């Protein structure tokens, strides 16, 4: 039904654009109360306004997720204002190809600090809420956005790919602790999705090569991923999809 997520409090990180924005909109359309986390306040507020105008429930929580204390503080605000999170989608991430011949230490660090660090900070901030929510309602969900890159080899994407391999392995290990507490852990591993992600690539050769794949591959759109995530968290409590790979049909 259209209200299959009603009564659930959902936290989505990286909700100001791309995949996270669409997950937030889709959860709200299915009845969840959604907390949107990212840094760009204006973007978050515009999306919240839109969701509210279409009858949904949402609120924005601007935060830099690389800041552990700030992330924990926001988690406390969410619990007080919306209730314990029963769905947490840890989705914020950045992809900055780092060719070794042109090594860019700041880009290397940014990917580690966000793709690994923010996932850790989010986990630390929200695990207690997920466990309480699962005890109260029978199920809760932690969804982490990794990437197909986390299980493949893409020259120049080494640090990005390794950061996403961390997310996949982390999820499979967390599942062993959280599953018995009725907290499902799902790692979503998308192939290429058209978002702002590609526009942050500084290396022009890499950006051009990536863009050229549109000539042969119809890229996914954020709604494709949002639909799959909404499906996973809407399943009966006994069913968990630990890893979901979603690829454009023509991407190999
Ligand atoms: P976008 O660039 O559109 O989204 C990234 C999101 O992360 C934005 O909302 C951004 O918001 C947020 N973000 C970045 N830095 C921070 C920070 N320090 N604190 C809080 N939020 C932050 O890209 P996508 O939607 O494509 O990416 C979403 C996830 O999907 C990422 O983890 C990405 O690696 C993954 N992915 C994407 C694929 C693709 O082809 N697009 C393929 C596979 C995986 P703000 O700037 O407002 O903070």
TrEMBL record:
<dbReference type="Pfam" id="PF00106">
    <property type="entry name" value="adh_short"/>
</dbReference>
<dbReference type="InterPro" id="IPR002347">
    <property type="entry name" value="SDR_fam"/>
</dbReference>
<keyword id="KW-0560">Oxidoreductase</keyword>
<protein>
    <submittedName>
        <fullName>SDR family oxidoreductase</fullName>
        <ecNumber>1.-.-.-</ecNumber>
    </submittedName>
</protein>
<comment type="similarity">
    <text>Belongs to the short-chain dehydrogenases/reductases (SDR) family.</text>
</comment>
<dbReference type="InterPro" id="IPR036291">
    <property type="entry name" value="NAD(P)-bd_dom_sf"/>
</dbReference>
<dbReference type="GO" id="GO:0016491">
    <property type="term" value="F:oxidoreductase activity"/>
</dbReference>
<dbReference type="InterPro" id="IPR020904">
    <property type="entry name" value="Sc_DH/Rdtase_CS"/>
</dbReference>
């Amino acid at each position: 039904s259209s209200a299959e997520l009603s009564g659930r409090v959902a936290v989505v990180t990286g909700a100001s654009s791309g995949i996270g924005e669409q997950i937030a909109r889709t959860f709200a359309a299915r009845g969840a109360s959604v907390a949107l986390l990212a840094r760009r306040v204006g973007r978050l507020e515009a999306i919240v306004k839109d969701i509210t105008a279409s009858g949904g429930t949402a609120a924005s929580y601007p935060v830099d997720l690389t800041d552990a204390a700030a992330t924990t503080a926001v988690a406390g605000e969410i619990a007080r204002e919306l209730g314990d999170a029963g769905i947490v989608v840890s989705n914020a991430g950045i992809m900055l190809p780092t060719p070794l011949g042109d090594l860019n230490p700041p880009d290397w660090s940014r990917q580690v600090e966000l793709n690994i660090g923010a996932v850790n900070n989010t986990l630390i901030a929200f695990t207690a809420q997920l466990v309480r929510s699962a005890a109260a309602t029978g199920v809760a969900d932690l969804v982490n956005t990794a990437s197909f890159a986390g299980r493949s080899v893409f020259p120049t994407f080494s640090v990005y790919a390794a950061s996403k391999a961390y997310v996949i392995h982390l999820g499979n290990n967390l599942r062993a602790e959280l599953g018995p507490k009725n907290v499902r852990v799902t790692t979503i591993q998308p192939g290429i999705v058209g978002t702002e992600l590609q526009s942050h690539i500084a290396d022009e050769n890499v950006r051009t090569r990536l863009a050229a794949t549109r000539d042969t591959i119809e890229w996914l759109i954020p709604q494709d991923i949002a639909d799959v995530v909404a499906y996973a968290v809407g399943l009966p409590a006994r069913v968990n999809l630990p890893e979901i790979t979603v690829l454009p049909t023509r991407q190999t």
